[in-house]
Amino acid sequence: MQQDNWTSPPDSLHIESRHVDVWRIFLNLQADSIKLAESTLSADEAQRAARFHFPKDRDHFVAAHGILRQIIGRYLHCKPGELTFSVNQYGKPSLVDSKLEFNLSHSGDFALLAITQNRKIGVDVERVRQGISSHVIAQQYFSKAEVAELQSLPMEQREAAFFTCWTRKEAYIKAQGIGLSLPLESFDVSLSPNEPAMLRAVRPDSQEAARWTLRPLDVAPNYAGALAVEGIDLDFRLWDWNSTVHV
Question: How many Å apart are CA 60 and CA 124, to the nearest integer?
Answer without folding.
Answer: 16
